[in-house]
Amino acid sequence: EELQQKFPKVFEEGLGRCTKEKAVLKVKPNSTPVFKPKRPVPYGALETVEKELDRLEGLGVLKKVNHSKWAAPLVCVKKAGGDIRVCVDLSTGLNDALEDEDHPIPPPEDIFASMNGGRYFSTVDFKDAYLQIELAEESRHLFTINTHRGLYEYQRLVFGVQPIKGMCDPKNQKELRSFMGMITYYSAFIPQMKSLRGPLDKLLLKDVEWRWSTKEAEAFQKLKDVLSSDLNLTHYDPQIPIVVAADACDYGIGAVISHRFPNGDEKPIAHAARSLNAAEKNYSQIEKEGLGLIFAVKRFHKYLFGRKFLLRTDHKPLLSIFGSKKGIPVHSQNRLVRWSTILRGYDFDIEYVKTDDFGQADALSRMIQKFPTENEDIVIAQVEVEVEETLHGAIRKLPVRVADVQEETQKSKLLQEVQKYVSRGVWPKKVDEKLKRFSSIKESLSCVQKCLMMQDRVVIPEALQKVVLKQLHEGHPGMVRMKQLARSFVYWPGMDEDVERVVASCNTCQVHGKTPRKVPLQPWKTPERVWQRVHVDYAGPENGQYYLVAVDAKSKWAEVAIVKSISGLSTVRTLKDMFSTATVPIQTTTVPSQTTTSATVQPRRTTRVPKPIVKYDPS
Ligand SMILES: [Zn+2]
């Protein structure tokens, strides 16, 4: 109470501010700013996100800005209590561009040593500790977030051992061999291991009957004691590189955090393991492995947070998911995506190691059978909703409904088989020609709401391919553009060939689809009056419709018309309507496409829609 009276400001409600130092972040020389588009906010989270943005703006943590060279997308992370925290996905660029900085954290020994002789101890918990530190002026522009409400700049810093004893006696040679693998790994550090392992080594000989008597049990116990004693563990030293390895088997996950010494030796700091619960046992192998890494990182959080470490797995596909520098891949299965958002909070490199070289964590995961499961619901991002939004967004561009895609996907024998393998995470070694087209891209496939997705594209079932092709062909875009359009949101094996076939048999595409002559781009001059020059282009398709957008170059005033067809005739008609409510512009432009420059425009010169002659930068 005395303290409270003496320093009333420190105990005030609201966000505190560190007055001693500001955070300065250094960008590596020659790094290019990365500006990422905003992500769709899940509808269910919209209200909460808005409130959080308001709160942070009110606290002075966020400031609205109009321009920025850097922008990272916003990620919503659900806290245990159901609250949503607004985070920044810095993995999209800034993380890589920042200089690695070593923050020397005092080792516990030093802290305890400095406390020597003290009689009174108190703990102080800073509320929103990170946000209390101000970002230096020159660093603020780096932390810009791109949200559905525009750009915001951060003014404050943002955030992005006992299990061995619980091991059960081995039940067979396989389990024992696994344990002995770990012993071999550690015997480099503990010479006495060699003499202790004798009785157990005998059990591993060929054609020996499995016999677990007191003798074996005692040897096993001693080895466990040695393994978990301080003898074998090294002390955490913030200056020495850290390696975290995790592995999973059918019923458990194991993890080990080690120091890698300058001579290449690795010595563990701590072990952790637990058994899988019933639901987790049904996870696919990749998910079990992913769970292992998440378990390891969470368990060793205090060693890992705020410093760089190496994460090691023997499951190669995890590299592309957890090691992605391009932001969270939306195509991965939901659970993995959620975990990869958890990992965003840490600074690590990920490394693949062959299973054979992976002794320790593997043994741990196999040996631990009855270990309490901890609560996993610490951080759950709302990415599932985000993935579903991607599916719906892609289907909105099509002349079909989500229900159609769902229904036809269920009806398709081939896609049913694909879905089965995707959800199991295991593909048969030998597959027929048709399935092969899918198995070769298996890492990119996922099931979302009974539909199949390939990355963020919808897999179109056979029955719907024709109508989708028809829509893609709308406006005779020609080969290149039609393929581009198709690849931006749909997928099926042989799609490119189908597009080629459609274009090859279409005369209009043949005439207009040729690659346009390359002409250097020239910037537009700002016109003197409004409605003097109007830029015209089509947006869409969206819900099977197109939008004819006309923007006045001077005032930036935009007119939009919803149209079913983007033929030349329809374009002229729509523009006529549009111009009849305003004046007729002197110059109309379009992005070079055959639609509006086609012959249909010319006989209607009376509408005074002149054809663009010079190719300008489509701004
Ligand atoms: Zn055509």
From TrEMBL:
Under the heading Pfam families, the entry gives: Integrase_H2C2, RT_RNaseH
One GO CC annotation = DNA polymerase complex
* UniProt keywords, alphabetically: Endonuclease, Hydrolase, Nuclease, Nucleotidyltransferase, RNA-directed DNA polymerase, Transferase
Low complexity bias spans: 593-603
Asked if the keyword Transmembrane helix belongs to this entry, the reply reads no
Name all Reverse transcriptase RNase H-like domain ranges. Answer: 237-346
> What is the designated name of this protein?
RNA-directed DNA polymerase
Annotated ranges, domain Integrase zinc-binding: 460-512
Documented EC number(s): 2.7.7.49
Residues annotated as region Disordered? 593-619
